[in-house]
Amino acid sequence: MRFIARYKKQIAAVFLILFIVLYNTTALADAFSFARKPMLFMGSILYTAGKPINNFFTALFKANSLSFQIASQQEAIADLNFKLNELGAGSEESEQSFEQLSNLFGATIIKTRVISSHLSAGKRIVILNKGESDGIKEGYAVITDHAVFVGKVIQAKKDFSAVLVVTDSSSAVASSLASNNNVQAIVRGKQGIGLEMDLIPQDAVIDQEYVVVTSLLEENTPQGLLIGTVASVKYTEGELFKRASLSPFFSIHNLSNVGVIIPNNIE
Amino acid sequence: MRITIFFVALAAMLVDFFLARSSSSMYFNVGFLIIIFLSAHRRYNDAIFMSITYGFFLDFLSPITPFGTFIIAHFVIYLILRYATAIFSNVSNVALLAVIFLSSVSYILVLSIFEYIGINIFTQFSADFVSLFSASLAFKSAILSCVFVLCFIVFARFSANMFGKLFFIK
Fold it and tell me: In this structure, are A206 and A155 located in the same domain?
């Protein structure tokens, strides 16, 4: 007893290190997973409450650029509405639910909720309230209910999963033009807010407002998920490929309900 | 008392992880400010318990970094603070704000170093230090911490005066 009292701190440190090692190497993490659910529940309430605060800071630091962005997006929305009316498509038809998307892509879609979005380990990620126990695995694609590609699951824990957002700098997705599937390229994230389409063949016809979608070459991802619209095309004579800046179809802070695509060919 | 610290660490983690980190403009580190506060008041046992518990909660929910990264990082931060607060124990309020500003920037830097080591050695992911540590983000967060502490000092003085007047305490 005297020994324990004398070396109390050292013993505590040894136990702590032992705990860390066991947590990472054994199934000890699963034993503690019961505590995660109430924490995630409380966290999701705080995250929802924090959105107005975040909007305040965004307005404080980015008000000027946002006003320009809003103006250009309003123009784009007006233009799209005009095109929709021309096509005769009603607003009800455009709101595809996850069930409809599931039938369309021939894959199961698990509906989940975003409980947090932040910069973790230098990566722009969103955390979903469902994980491995619901069938979610690493590499699965995440979409909105309008078939917009959000990103891919990079870590699936028992009760929650982390998604690397397509706009993160470390994200790279095989893509093609919606109007021409033969034009294959790579879409990379740009500083967590934008997108850049790279490796576009020189002979490819690409211009502003062309829609970019996911390619058949992207693993675990159906072809045709919306990624963004072309904002500008960069072309330097003598270079092998063209580059294009894209405007994404979603804002990370407006994400709430998303779906995880479970490919049917994977058990 | 330890149970209070436990719940304070839990609340601080929930605020920092879910509320403050949702912002892409800046971070706010309530947990770190509490560790500073406890260290400044020489409550070292509470400070070490707070730093380990806070680190544990962050590790528990952090999806990318390996478990233990934040516990060890916060323990190292506690050790630095323990000796730093001894040096800065008798400084003026203005100097205290400067100390908090530098500490906040250092905190984000130390955390980024540990995240960088943890991710690159123990996970299948890779991270470059530039994407982990953003100087502008660290400076903005440090300014926010200073504003928070300044408000806290002003509020504490105002409350103490009001309390003294109400209950005739000199």
Answer: no
The answer as to whether A64 is a domain residue is no
**B2-167 topology per CATH:** Arp2/3 complex 21 kDa subunit ARPC3 (1.10.1760)
A·B CB contacts under 8 A: 114
- Cα separation of A60 and B77, whole Å? 31
Q: What is the pLDDT of residue B26?
A: 62
C-beta neighbour count of A229 within 10 angstroms: 19
Domain segments of chain B: what residues?
A: 2-167
Instruction: Flag the least confident range among A56-65, A101-110, A139-148, B23-32.
Output: A56-65
Helix (H) or strand (E) holding A16: helix A8-25
Sign of the C-alpha dihedral computed for residues A156, A160, A162 and A163 taken in this order: positive
**A46 → closest Cβ in B15, B127, B132:** B15
This prediction's pTM: 0.76
SS (H, E, C) A89-132: CCHHHHCCCHHHHHHHHCCEEEEEEEEEEEEECCEEEEEECCCH
**Domain CATH code at residue A238:** 2.40.10.350
Q: Which residues of B touch A118 (CB under 8 A)?
A: 17, 21-22
Would you state the torsion angle of the CA atoms of residues A38, A41, A46, A51, taken in this order, to the nearest 10 degrees? 160
A226 pLDDT exceeds 60? yes
The CATH number given to whatever domain includes residue A78 is 2.40.10.340
Q: Taking all residues of chain A, what is their mean pLDDT, rounded to a whole number?
A: 81
Structure-block tokens of residue A8 = 């109390």
Average pLDDT value for residue range A57-86: 64
